[in-house]
């Protein structure tokens, strides 16, 4: 198991560490450009390639598709959003948050004065950008990179189709579906012009979704070997660049102050959601054994780079996303034996 985790995490460790070391040598505009480049070109190219590789026959279990896997995946997203919004609502209504928010609102109309009881800073309250990043980190960050590397060692081949379906459906409907809606809403939430059609427009123009659909439609169309080989190689390059961006943003964290906000979404992602998925699949759907474990494992995988890419594109709280990635990754090491013990 230790060797499996090591190999699964090696790209994350290698490229994230490189981003940490070279951060000081890079111009300030480069991380933003890298994030936008991944959003508009890198990730769509990756999903196009993966969609072409994915054959429906790979998911066949006997004579039928594991239809419960998409149901569990979408149910996990809905359940996770409910938990995240509930905790966020409680957090926003804490007395200290109300006080800080009111002080910031008043300070917008007052010039700086020594009479203020403490320095006013947007970090003292949950800004719309922080709320958007909170939801992305807790529920809508992409998963599957580590999960699909670990799952073959923990579940049998029949249940692997469930894990693969979970990964694909979650990544398309999660970060590049609902995630875009959340990111767009909270990036415009302080503007009077924020309307439902703005989020609809954002979803309809997400390049990753169109790339995935086009990849599925052309999966049976052969391409020249040079192009196919180039597409295969591009996936590993895109993943490396995404982890490099993660390392750069981690290097820019301002100590404990930036990291502490990441604990709550990391706990939701790595602990609360998989526990609820395990209970629901057991008592509501009657799943057991490797199929249940596959759903629990995939729902508890750490947040990856999609949330950070969306934060770069929509100017959300990058610190919260970056810290939650590393914290949820560390939590996986603690929780993985628990899920195997409870749900295998």
TrEMBL record:
Gene3D superfamilies reported for this sequence: 1.20.1530.20
This protein's UniProt keywords: Cell membrane, Membrane, Transmembrane, Transmembrane helix, Transport
InterPro entries: Mem_transp_PIN-like (IPR004776), Na+/solute_symporter_sf (IPR038770)
Entry GO CC: plasma membrane
UniProt source species: Chlorogloeopsis fritschii PCC 6912
Transmembrane segments: 6-26, 67-91, 134-155, 161-183, 203-223, 235-251, 263-287, 293-311, 320-342
Official protein name in the record: Transporter
Any one of the GO BP annotations: transmembrane transport
Protein location: Cell membrane
Family from the record: Belongs to the auxin efflux carrier (TC 2.A.69) family.
Membrane topology term: Multi-pass membrane protein
